[in-house]
Amino acid sequence: MSELNNLQPKEVFDFFKQICAIPHGSRNTKQISDYLVKFAEDRNLEHYQDDVNNVIVIKEATKGYEKSAPIIIQGHMDMVCDKTPESDIDMTKEGLRLGVDGDWLYAEGTTLGGDDGIAVAMALAAMDSSELQHPRLECIFTVDEEIGMLGAEALDMSHITAEKMLNIDSEDEGIFTVSCAGGVTAKAIVPVKRAEVSGKLYKLTVGGLLGGHSGQEIDKERGNSNIIMGRVLYNIAKKTDIKILSLGGGVADNAICKKTEAEVIAADGKKLEDAVNELDRVIKHEFKTADPGVAITSSCEGDKTVKALDADSVYKVITYLMNSPYGIQHMSMDIEGLVETSLNLGALALTD
Fold first, then answer.
1. Model pTM?
2. Active-site residue identified among 115, 145, 263, 291
3. Which of the residues in the chain have pLDDT under 70?
């Protein structure tokens, strides 16, 4: 698209387009890490690459700035990989398909990775420039930030001399934030048992949700399909006996889950379908503004004999999902409109 060639500042977006052409989801950063190393080698810049794929690139001060204090420019190279159900892109192997809509740059059918590809692009543009005047630049590109700051934890800082850092990983252009956000990943495990059961197998789906980043969009009060699925199972279980065969949704703990699926054996298929249809109407009304595309569906897969969760395990799973807190927990008393604490059930899986 010709619009992509007109984005300004051109140097930054030229590098951003190159980054978008390289798969760089969390735990899939070797290729983008090697790209950064080649950037440094091509320009004879001091650089370091460690075993986890973190990269440090250093450009010395320009003339007249030799005695100025060095500065760190820092961003992370990994992105959250998510896509629409109809997208055929393999984000582990393919680049993104970019488009422009007015003032917005977007990726077709997938996340864009502006968090934090734009930081990498800005740093590269700064180091690539022959006109920009600057002190010694120590550019740090870390991996796996989106899944727990894993790259930062492993980083060897012995090559760094600067005492000031610009971390380019915020939402608002032109605003400097002097603070830090913290996160905790909790893994909750509910022990379950299976038993052989026969009956009509139903596939349940909660989908059509907008999703989003659990930090940036948590105040939008969008639905989380994992949480809604708990309500689906609870409402069905009130009307007929069910046994759960499979259950899962979500790709990352910091992404609001937008699709969850379950397979259940129902004692009475008609009561299950009635419960699903009733809750679908309720949920559509609840989220008509925040998440207007939400839909709850069921489809009968026929009579089956399978090993599904026993009655006690079904009770545990439904109880957990119904009581698991989600969304804003506390707002700041000091800064108006600031979410201070929030929770997100990002990934749900039923395993052996």
1. 0.73
2. 145
3. 1-2
